[in-house]
Each structure stands twice: as structure tokens, then as C-alpha cells.
Amino acid sequence: MNKILYISSEAFPLIKTGGLGDVAGSLPVALCKQSQDVRLLLPAYPEVLHNIAKSKIIATGAYYNLSARILETRLPGSNVIVWLVDCPAAFNRPGGPYTDHHGQPRHDNALRFAIFCHAAVDIALGRLALDWQPDVAHCNDWQSGLVPALLSLHAKRPSTIFTIHNLAYQGIFDRRTFIDLHLPEELWHIDGLEFYDQFSFIKGGLAYADKITTVSPRYAEEILRPEYGDGLDGLLNSRQQDLSGIMNGIDERQWNPGTDQHLKQKYNRRSLAKKSLNKSDLQQYFSLPVDDSIVMIGMISRLVEQKGLDIILESLATLVTYPVQLMILGTGETHYEIELSEWAQRYPEQFKVTIGYNESLAHKIEAGSDIYLMPSTFEPCGLNQLYSLCYGTLPVVTPVGGLADSVTDASEENIKNQTANGFILKERSAVALLAAIQHALALYQQPKIWRQLQVNAMSGDFSWKVSAERYIALYQQTLDERA
Ligand code: ADP
Ligand code: GLC
Predict the structure, then answer these.
(1) Residue 73 CA neighbour count, 13 Å, CB half
(2) Among 372, 384, 391, 406, which residue has the most ligand 1 atoms within 8 Å of its CB, making it the best to mutate?
(3) How many folded domains does the chain comprise?
(4) β-bridge mates for residue 41, sequence order
(5) What's the pTM?
(6) Ligand nearest the Cα atom of residue 27
């Protein structure tokens, strides 16, 4: 049994803005199930404090003259012990984890997450008299990037793993910020935290962690190339020996159509006919024509460039001429919110857009749709296409990252050998997106084939079991190599 400090800036159900929340809320549970001794470390945002039943103070300290406490609680619905970095001046504010209530990045994010990282380092080095010290510090995304860098300065330290959930978010600040945070000057160089004269949090993970992982094997290959490497492909190539891709799993307690409490009608692959009750429920709820012969296309997403909104917007004028209903739930960049809402106002009989974050509606859309849209420009793993597969809702995706690793195109050959479970765009363009949707519409008219595709999709194993085993093997490998 190894002791793992799992460090994340979000974890469902305490706080979530995207897939990192899902992963950090479920991988630690899977690790515990496989006998790892895990502590999940999170910042104590107001939403987190609101969502926990009770907590106790287990340590106190101060960072940058701001007082802080470590609180202990449990991840709701599990036995996972959660430690919260409760520094009210940094974290107890209205708004999201990274943005203020106008959706703007907080001006002091570098300070906030430097505090989070220092607290993690103190725990990792046993400085808080907690009677528990990790063998491995498992960091996630830029918000915990300073942890491997700071730990690298100590001979006696835990092993460090850094998981890239999204290379596009790097935590870049200026040199002044680095100085003001009193970070060790020896970390400031081109192979360290410096990135073109700027200060990069993510490089702390990429340059100093013992091992680097990404959330799908395909993305681990892609980021070695300039198109996907976001300026870090050179560094990643130099660390290729230590880089691997481990596919995300899904939390089957939350995402299982057979037990999903959010659904009008639960179903599984043996009772697939019942799935359509969720579709009529959605159609009624949104005052759309209730008709099972109309194909319902769903999408739940952060509304950002990554998710392929450009080609979706480009396709809409043609898409609304097809016999389809389209439902998008999302929040993000204002121009996308406005443009999508305008289209929805123009075509109220076909197109519904809900701007905002709504967990329950997300489940209803996954279950009620026939097709799920995810034409991302890049996708480190993607969870929604995995949820869609489990819900028998066939994903239409670009052949990138975790989408390529999980979706098999409904080509004639793949239909025949019963591996097809979705639709892959030939290239990333509006024309290819419309062609893939037309292909899906044509197969929807052939119920036997459609049913088989759904069964193929629902038969896949997307549980955490295998991936958690891979992480455990990697933890052990790192420990052995450093012994
Ligand atoms: P990413 O992490 O890049 O946003 P993923 O597909 O990995 O993409 O995960 C997104 C997660 O966030 C899914 O659980 C999805 O259902 C959820 N999500 C995204 N936007 C919303 C929203 N507006 N309302 C509810 N859930 C959302
Ligand atoms: C990121 C990626 C997404 C991935 C998620 C969880 O937000 O954009 O592809 O599924 O992290 O790892």
C-alpha cells in the first residue's frame, strides 16, 4: 500500500468546472478501492465548505502572511479523506475557483495557487506534524505545477507525478510575480519555470516531476508535435521517457443509465427501448415537438474554442434544414453564448440553448439525445463522449486525443465486425461535420443497425479499474526507480 497525496484544484461533488473535477472526484475513490492510502488535497472554496457535512482542523500555518488551516473532511459518498487548504483571504470569495463573478480570471491567481502549492509541499515534506506523509505527490494541471519544482529542491521527498489534463492552460504570469512570490531563484531558467521570460506554473510539473502523464494515450503522442504542444513540445520531447498516457475512466456511481437518479426513465443495454422516454421528457421540457422519429442531437460543454464551436456555428444554417433537434448546454466565452442563443431564438422549434451550469440537465441530455456532438480541435481525453457511449448516445467526434482512443467510426467494416460505436469526422471542418451527421441520420433510419451501434457503445468498459491499476503501477515504478 502506498500513501498518495492527490492534489487538485477541483473535485466533484465538492467543486467542478469541467472534466478535472470528475477525474479528481473519482480516481481517488478507485485508488482507495485498490488499497492505496489517499489524501485528496483541495482549496477550501466557499462552495466546497458549503458542500461538506463537517470538518475538523488538523493543522494551522501561514503563507505570505495570510493565515491558513488544513481541514479534514470526507469526499461525499465515499471513504476518501479530503484535506482542504483553508486560507480564507485566498479562497473564500464569491465566484468560481479561477474566475470572479464576472467570469474574469482572478488578478491574484498566481498567489492563490502558490499558497495551495506551498501547503501541498509542507504536507509532502511532513512539516505540518500530520502523522501522515505521502510516498507519492500526484499533481494535476498548472494549479499544482509548483509542487514538483519546489519538492525537487529536497533530497528526501516523495516521488512526484504530474498529470496534464489540458496543455492549453499553463498558468503563465510575469517575472515580477515570480519575484513577489519569493520563489527560489534557482528555479528561474529556461529548463525550469521560465517560459520566454515569463513565469510558467505548468513547467514546474513538466520540467521537475519524476513522471508525466496525460489523460489518453493519443494525446500523449500528439503533444510531442508543435500543432498540439502549445510551445511545450520541445520540453515534452526531452521528457519522452517519463511521459505516458493513461485513459480517464468514468465514475459509474454518477454516470450509469441503469441507476441515474436524474433520469425520467432508467435503462440499460437490454432495455434500450426505454431510452426514448428520456427523449420525449426532454422534448416536453423544452417545448419541442414530441416525436421519436426526429433525431435529437445533444452537447454539454464549456463554450471555448477547444470544443469546435467554430465549425458547429458554421454548420448551423445547414443543420437546421435536417430533421433534427439540437440541444446545447454550456457556459463560457460570451461571444459563443450570444451567437448560439441567437440561433436558438431564430429556430425555437428545433434548437434549444441553455446557458449556465446544470448537472442534472447534463444527465438528462446524455440520456435523451440520440447523437452527441463533440468536434473538438483537440481533446486530452474528453468525458462526455465516454458518458454518451455508456448512455447509448452515439458520439460524433473529431479524430483527436481521447476521442480517437474511445470512438470507432461506423464504417461498413466496423459495423460488420461490431466495433462501431460512433461517427468520426474525416477532417475538422463544417463540411465533414455535416457529412458525419448525415451518415448518422441515414443509419438512424435503420433501427437494427442503430440498435447494434448502441449496444456496441454500451458494452465498452470505461470504468476506472484498469486505469487506476496503471496509475498504481506507475507510482510503484517511480518509487522503485528512486529507491
Ligand atoms: P473539459 O474538461 O475539457 O471541459 P470533459 O469532457 O473532460 O471536458 O468534461 C466536461 C465535464 O463537465 C463533463 O462532466 C460535463 O458534463 C461537464 N460540463 C461541462 N459543461 C457543463 C454545463 N454547462 N453544465 C453541466 N455540466 C457541464
Ligand atoms: C481537461 C480536458 C478533457 C479531459 C479532462 C479530464 O479539461 O479538456 O479532455 O477529459 O481534462 O482529464
Answers:
(1) 22
(2) 384
(3) 2
(4) 7, 83
(5) 0.97
(6) 2
Residue in 319, 308, 296, 287 with CA at minimum distance from that of residue 393: 296
Q: What is the CATH number of the domain that holds 72?
A: 3.40.50.2000
CA-wise closest residue to 178 among 208, 205, 152, 200: 200
Q: Is 134 in the pocket of ligand 2 (CB under 6 A)?
A: no
**Domain check: are 234 and 121 in the same one?**
yes
- Which ligand is closest to the CA of 384, given by its number? 1
Q: What is the pLDDT of residues 73-126, one digit of tens each?
A: 999 999 999 999 999 999 999 999 999 988 889 999 999 999 999 999 999 999
Ligand 2 atom 5 nearest Cα: 19
- Residue 94 CA to residue 91 CA, distance in Å, equals 9
Retrieve residue 322's grid coordinates.
Answer: 435536417
Q: Ligand 1 mean position to 406 CA, how many Å?
A: 17
> Which residues fall within 8 angstroms of residue 432, CB to CB, at 6 or more apart?
425, 426
User: Ligand 2: does its nearest atom lie under 6 Å from the Cβ of 249?
Assistant: no
pLDDT digits (tens, 9 = 90+) for 320-359: 999 999 999 999 999 999 999 999 999 999 999 999 999 9
Nearest Cα to 142, choosing from 123, 168, 124, 118? 168
**Is 22 part of a structural domain of the chain?**
yes
Co-location of 293 and 167 in the same domain = no
- Residue 261 forms part of a structural domain: no
Average pLDDT for the chain: 97
> Do 73 and 220 fall into the same domain?
yes
Instruction: Quote the domain boundaries for residue 129.
Output: 3-249+464-482
